[in-house]
Amino acid sequence: MKCIVPKQERVYLPVLDDDAVFPVGRVFCVGRNYAAHAREMGDDPDRDPPFFFAKDASCVVPTEFSKVAEISYPMATKQFEYEVELVVALGKGGQNMSLEEAKNAILGYAVGLDMTRRDLQAQAKKKGRPWEVGKSFDQSAPISPIVLHTQALSETLVKSEIGLKVNGATQQISSIANLTWSIEEVICKLSEVYELRPGDLIMTGTPENVGAVVAGDEMHAWVEHLGSIQVRVTN
């Protein structure tokens, strides 16, 4: 097939201890899925069901466990903020999935950052406009290699620590156990409004204490039993 403009390259995430790669399809994000963060953002976690937004696949920055990745401070913002998240990679798809189908759809997990232009997001929210300008932009989703799902990992992960440091100082710390909606519940809810596909990623939400970074700052984000990533902000 002849393309009238240069074809965009697809993004691939490595798979830990495997020579295969994960071709990134869509990147779904869950809004305010930790109660303390929901309150931090002005919502009532006991009342609000999960809601979803998306990042373009081109936002993903494959990030190795053992090396420091670099992302550029983005244009048009003065409030560039971090959000550490557990990322779920789907190996199967479907719609209106049951909890068992959701569990069986999980291929693996990763550590991710949902970087946000918070001032642009706030402006969009104030005017009732979509969030994409604050969420879906170049290099806004550094993500680690995929760690393949096992029953043992799944059982351990639900109680694992999640956290983030900036320049060595702890800023976010919580547990996956504090998710308002579990991993399987998120997949089920998402499958009620989208037909999910193999290759989709789901960023499952961030704990409280999100905050800003500037050029020169280095973030260290981790999920216990998965590993950690280091990301430096450049000019």
Would you spell out the secondary-structure blueprint of this structure?
Elements: E1 12-14, E2 21-23, E3 27-31, H1 35-40, E4 51-55, E5 60-62, E6 68-72, E7 80-82, E8 84-90, H2 99-105, E9 106-113, E10 116-117, H3 118-126, H4 132-135, E11 141-143, E12 147-148, H5 151-157, E13 161-166, E14 169-175, H6 183-191, E15 201-203, E16 211-212, E17 218-223, E18 227-234
Parallel strand pairs: 3-15, 5-11, 6-18
Antiparallel strand pairs: 1-2, 3-4, 7-10, 7-16, 8-9, 8-15, 9-12, 13-14, 13-17, 17-18
Helix pairs in contact: 2-6
Count of folded domains: 1
Between the first and last Cα atoms, what is the distance in angstroms? 39 Å
Q: Characterize the main sheet.
A: 6 strands, mixed
Radius of gyration in whole Å, from Cα? Answer: 17 Å
Taken as a percent bin, the fraction of beta residues is: 25-35%
- Mean pLDDT, as a whole number? 95
Task: Output the CATH homologous superfamily.
Answer: Fumarylacetoacetase-like, C-terminal domain
Low-confidence stretches: none
Pattern of helices and strands = EEEHEEEEEHEEHHEEHEEHEEEE
Indicate the CATH class: Alpha Beta
Share in helix: 10-25%
Largest sheet strand order: 4-3-15-8-9-12
What structural class do you assign from the helix and strand content?
alpha+beta
**Count the strands?**
18
Fold-level CATH name: Fumarylacetoacetate hydrolase, domain 2
CATH architecture tag: Alpha-Beta Complex
User: Tell me, what's the shape?
Assistant: globular
DSSP summary: helix tally: 6
Protein name: Fumarylacetoacetate hydrolase family protein
InterPro entries: Fumarylacetoacetase-like_C (IPR011234), Fumarylacetoacetase_C_sf (IPR036663)
Keywords: Hydrolase, Metal-binding
Organism: Marinomonas sargassi
